[in-house]
Amino acid sequence: MNCSLLTLVVCLGSISLTLSASAPVVSIPAPDYTAQSVPLSQQAQSITVKVRSQDFLGSGIILRRNGATYTVLTNAHVLQAGDPPYRIQTVDGRIYTANLPQRLNFGKNDLAVLQFKSAGSIYAVASFGASPTPGDEVFAAGYPAVEERGKKQTFAFTTGKVGLVLAKPLEGGYQLGYTNNVKNGMSGGPLLNRRGQVVGINGMQAYPLWDQPSVFADGSKAEERLHQMIIRLSWAVPITKVMQMIPKAEKTTVTTVFSKAD
User: Fold this and answer.
1) Which of 235, 145, 249 is nearest to 199 (CA)?
2) d(Cα 54, Cα 39) in Å, to the nearest integer?
3) Do the beta carbons of residue 153 and residue 143 sit within 8 Å?
4) What integer pLDDT is reported at residue 150 of this predicted model?
């Protein structure tokens, strides 16, 4: 073998070693672009609104957007706490007058929707996840009621875990029990999973003031041991129940809705 041929063999061998050393780089998994880069609390706040009439009533979730029209999900008992006209206050502080859509009925489930129009501002809309299982980490969000005059109302975001998923719902459709601290005013706000997806709608606090029997939607009562477990947890209506019923909202219309800056 002459010198020039030997040189060529050595060079090719060097290239082969270099490629071999760099091969692992090719096998590195691509970045997970589905991972959320925005903090969960910020995601939750972007889709959570205040529901008002003359005064603050509770919280709500921006469920969907159709053009300039937004649908907000909340609890029926939140709306029952005040009289129309209802108003929605979004994360940017703007207040919009909202209407109750016609021909939408959630039956005996503690659910209701409002709709408002925003001609200038665009708001985030919730994404939805599957019902969680016991032990899953969940996050409850909303706006607790202010009890002291002059105290500023702040957004609350609490961490906990699912404690119970009932085989059949309690009255109002409540089926997800969790350890998060939920205060007055957070009713209607979202319960989220680790991906920032809404899995339920907050509505019942732990340790109710009146220890009444836990009653299921079918009218039967929970036995005492289960009842004691139920009252130690906060409760949400599963978002899966909402999505089974909400397609009817697409057929509704909103009239005489206007917006105004706060």
Assistant:
1) 235
2) 33
3) yes
4) 67
Given a contact cutoff of 8 angstroms between Cβ atoms, the answer to whether 173 and 108 are in contact is yes
The pTM assigned to this predicted structure is 0.79
Q: Which domains does the chain have, with CATH numbers?
A: 45-126+244-260 (2.40.10.10), 137-241 (2.40.10)
Cβ-contact 262, 94 below 8 angstroms = yes
Q: Which two tokens stand for residue 154?
A: 């702040």
Answer whether 139's CB lies under 8 Å from 157's CB: yes
Question: Residues 131-183: pLDDT tens digits?
Answer: 999 999 999 999 999 876 667 889 999 999 999 999 999 999 999 999 999 99
